[in-house]
Amino acid sequence: MKLTWLGHSAFHAEIAGKSVLIDPFLSGNPKAPDGFLDTLDRVDFLVLTHGHEDHLGDSEAVLEKFNPTLVAMYEIAMYYGGKGHEKVEPMNIGGSVTNDGLTFTMVNAQHSSAFMEAGKPITMGDPAGMIIKAPGEKTLYHAGDTEVFSDMALIQRVHDPKIGLIPMGDRFTMGPDTAALACNEFLNLETIVPVHWGTMDLLTGDPEDFKKQVSRGEVKIATPGQAMDL
Hints:
The chain is an alpha/beta fold and 230 residues long. The protein has helices spanning 53-56, 59-66, 74-81, 152-159, 176-186, 207-213; strands at residues 2-5, 11-15, 18-22, 45-47, 69-73, 88-91, 96-99, 102-108, 114-117, 120-123, 128-133, 140-142, 163-167, 191-195, 218-219, 227-229. It contains 6 helices and 16 strands.
C-alpha cells in the first residue's frame, strides 16, 4: 500500500492497484500539496467519512474530473447522486460494500456531520470511520473525526486494522492525550499516522506530544505530499 497524506484528514491511497481518495480537502487547505489532483491519471474510489466542509472539500471537482465510485454515508451519496453523479455506493454504520476488489466497512465515530448552505446547516447523516480491506494488503482504518470511545476495541477485534489514520488536533477531535489512550488501550495498530492537526491555529494538538505518549504501534508523522510505503 502506498499512502500519501494531503494535509488535514485528506489521503490518497494506492491499494491493490486501485486509486482511492479520502476526504479530499485540498482547496483552502494550507497544508495540501499544490496541484496534487493534476498528478493523478485516475481516481477509482472517492471515500467520504462525513459531511463537514473540511472533509467534503473538492469532492465535486474530483467526481467531475475522474468519475470515481463514491463510497459514503447514505445521505452524502444521495446528495451527490442528486447532482447527477451515478456511481455511488451508499452505506451506513456497520455495513460493508465490496466493489472491484476492495471492501469498505463503515464504523462508528463520535462527531457531527453537516455543512452550511446559504447560511443554514444541511444534515449529511451521521459521522463515520472507514475500514478498507483488500486481499494481500494491510487493513486500513481512517477514524474520521472522532472522540475516543471504548468500542474502538470492537473495531480492532472485528476488523484487525494494521494502519490507523488517527485525528489528534484537539478542539474538534481527540487531542494528543485521548488519541494516545485510544491507541494504547483500545486499538492495536502497527502504524499510526496522526491527522487533523496543524491546518489552522484552532488545532493546537502537537503530533510530537502524541508520539511521545503512544506506547503501542509506530507513529509516523507524515509530510504532506510524501508517499509512504506501508
